[in-house]
Design goal:
The complex is a heterodimer of chains A (104) and B (476). By secondary structure, chain A is mostly helical. Helices cover 73% and strands 0% of the residues of chain A. Classes of the chains: A mainly alpha (104), B alpha/beta (476).
Chain lengths: 104, 476
């Protein structure tokens, strides 16, 4: 899809999706216990690592050394974000799991 | 939009599945019982979207040959480098340095979003006649500026948390003027690019200014406020990713980015609320300069010291001990000995609880993670509101490397932390404070708690001090 020729319908759909997703984001975390703020921040950090898909799409259409270099940079950065983000979140949450005397 | 082929329709469904897993990931992360499953679910959804894009992209392009996407080597090479760096960083980092790590990963994401926006602009600007459509230009500009601010802001936050950059607020001379001029310049460039000429050099200048802005905005904020800043920058990266999703017509990016943008914003708000401050105050007040502190003239010589044996006896023969952990415990990695101390005291019939202030440590939940790592039972960790009334009925409050969260100055007006709810440690019968040295805390504010009659200080590395307390309790 050529992003410069989006139909009005696609633009409006994107607007609707954005507004609704913002409300979901707001609702989903509005009642989180303080002790989970750090893992939640880290988890959200991992989710925006989906930017690596954007980097892949840039890579797919890259020609010329400049754009290839940019695409490579974006893929590296995006991968660090997504891989590191999920692994570090899992490490934090691992700590919550193995506690004796767990209460429901 | 013209007709979609089967692969394109399937791609939309993959995006939908991915988006649902991202929402569930955040939802499950909101409860300790489901958090880990939530994170794994999010990771699985992410893997699905990434692999699907990698293997089917070309199928979804009208009229192209089936196969993996072109330039697949860029993705394989970049993905390999990024994966190694990400896994090594995430695995090797000590628990105390988690906040820095989140900042760095966030910066990487912001950088990626900025580069994507830049690459898309370069791809389409200057071709054909006339200007690019306004929504496209606005989205690339937004991705460029917000991603860039998130990148350099996160690097500064990392530096401050890691101690590479001065943790204290660094104000440039004429800070407001510089910030204002930067944003006016960026606004003017953005308007020119959008309305008059899709100029590539100006877009590059725009991104460069945004990179500078990220530094200028973050430097004046004190190290103690970095968690809030990291959370805010996390939200920014989400918005930048959403902008990229718009540019690329990729709903997975659009939804995930918006989701994080919104949840990051509310999380930031929750954090500032826990400190009883506003976001504006955090960002612009230069908190922690320490210059204008009310009653900041306590003589350090009035501090009373105690040795570990006496402190141990005090606790071993008390009925109730409340342990108040802070960043000092994290730095010294003292959580293991702290658990040992707790076990010993409990075996001697002492009621031991932990009082966790919402902003103890460098990040909310920091203490919970560390104590959980040391297998401290979850039900001994009490939040501030649950335990604050119990201090009056407590024999010993043991403060381990915490400072601001127990500073009674917060109850009075005129201090940078005025109004922040604190733990009522000063109401306990005895207060024992473990502290590395005599200096003021991270925020540079003197703490009158330390010079109270009932307070005794135990100076030294928290881990060693707690170990000697353990020995003391054993022989007590």
């Amino acid at each position: 899809m050529d992003p410069t020729t989006l139909s009005p319908f696609a633009l409006l759909a994107a607007l609707f999706i954005t507004v609704l997703a913002a409300f979901i984001g707001y609702e989903v975390v509005s009642k989180v216990p303080t002790m989970l703020h750090t893992p939640l921040m880290s988890g959200a950090n991992a989710v925006h690592g989906v930017i690596v898909v954007g980097a892949m799409l840039v890579a797919a259409t890259s020609d010329g050394p400049l754009r290839i270099a940019l695409a490579l940079l974006a893929v590296i950065l995006g991968t660090i974000n997504v891989v590191g983000g999920f692994v570090v979140t899992d490490r934090m949450l691992e700590m919550f799991k193995k506690r004796p005397g767990e209460r429901g | 939009m013209t007709d979609l082929n089967g692969w394109q329709i399937a791609t939309f469904f993959v995006w939908l599945i991915g988006s649902v897993t991202f929402i569930l990931a955040l939802k499950f992360l909101a409860s300790p019982k489901t958090a880990r499953v939530g994170n794994l679910l999010g990771a699985a959804g992410m893997a699905l979207v990434i692999l699907w894009t990698f293997f089917t992209y070309d199928l979804a392009q009208p009229g192209s040959e089936p196969g993996m996407l072109e330039n697949w080597w860029i993705i394989v090479v970049g993905g390999a480098i990024g994966s190694v760096a990400g896994v090594l960083g995430a695995r090797r980092v000590p628990m105390t340095a988690m906040p820095q790590m989140v900042a760095i990963f966030n910066g990487a994401g912001g950088g990626a979003a900025a580069v994507v926006a830049l690459a898309e602009f370069l791809e389409f600007a200057g071709h054909g006649e006339g200007l690019l459509p306004l929504p496209f230009v606005i989205a690339t500009l937004a991705g460029g500026i917000i991603g860039s601010v998130a990148l350099t802001g996160s690097i500064v936050a990392f530096g401050k948390l890691q101690g590479i950059v001065a943790a204290r607020p660094v104000m440039l001379p004429g800070q407001q003027i510089i910030t204002g001029a930067l944003f006016l310049a960026m606004l003017a460039i953005a308007v020119y690019i959008a309305a008059f000429e899709n100029s590539i050099p100006l877009f590059l200048l725009f991104v460069a200014l945004a990179l500078v802005a990220g530094v200028v905005l973050t430097m004046p904020i004190g190290g103690a406020d970095m968690p809030v800043v990291v959370s805010l920058l996390n939200s920014y990266t989400g918005i930048a990713v959403a902008a990229s999703g718009f540019v690329l017509s990729n709903y997975a990016l659009l939804i995930a980015g918006t989701l994080v943008g919104a949840s990051g914003a509310i999380l930031t708000q929750l954090m500032t609320k826990a400190m009883n401050r506003s976001l504006v105050n955090v960002l612009f007040a230069g908190f922690g300069t320490g210059g204008d502190v009310a009653g900041g003239e306590e003589g350090e010589e009035s501090l009373k010291e105690i040795n570990a044996e006496d402190a141990a006896v005090l606790m071993a023969y008390g009925k109730r001990v409340i342990i108040v952990p802070g960043y000092g415990m994290a730095v010294a990695q003292a959580q293991g000995p702290v658990r040992e101390l707790m076990d010993l005291l409990v075996s001697k019939g002492v009621d031991v609880q932990f009082a966790i202030h919402p902003v103890a440590g460098r990040m909310p939940g920091h203490m919970n993670v560390l104590l959980a790592e040391a297998n401290v039972p979850y039900d001994r960790l009490q939040e501030m509101d649950e335990i604050n009334d119990d201090f009056a009925d407590t024999d010993v409050a043991l403060v381990i490397g915490a400072n601001n969260v127990v500073n009674p100055v917060a109850r009075e007006a005129g201090s940078p932390i005025s109004g922040m709810p604190i733990l009522n440690v000063d109401q306990a019968q005895h207060v024992i404070v473990l502290k590395r040295g005599r200096g003021a805390g991270f925020a540079g504010i003197p703490n009158p708690l330390f010079s109270l009659e009932k307070t005794s200080m135990l100076f030294g590395n928290a881990k060693e001090t707690v170990e000697s307390l353990v020995q003391g309790v054993k022989t007590a």
